[in-house]
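Entry 12.
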Amino acid sequence: MKIIDIQNQLVKEFEELESWEDKYTKIIKLGRELPQMSEELKTEKNKIEGCQSQVWMHAELKDGKMIIVADSDAMIVKGLIALLVKVYSGHEPGEIMSSPPEFLQKIGIDRHLSPTRKNGLGAMLKQIQLYAVTFNALAAASEQ
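Predicted 3D structure (tokens):
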């Protein structure tokens, strides 16, 4: 499934929820379903700067696809990470680079987060893009 299809599916799922309380509940549920990140990966190197709570993210390239693992010590933030992992993990770096997170605006999350959480979400997105750019450049260099 392409990134745009996953984004559209999430938008549809969130549109079916009536209140923001229900949407926050769904975000927290997604966070609880996030695969466990190993403690060895929870290092300073993998820590996302700009987040109020502690957030770790690690990515690697497997068979040309970027695999992202992440965790947070805050339930809402962990849910936000789960949304990003659901959308971007398992895709080629080029597709990630060309797929802006428009679904976040369509869902309305950007209007319902505190400024610090919004900054943290931006930092997480920036890190995913940075991983994608790096892996894309490494793949291009190895082809030469």
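Annotation: The helical segments are 3-15, 20-33, 75-88, 93-97, 102-107, 115-143. Residues 115-143 form the longest helix (29 residues).
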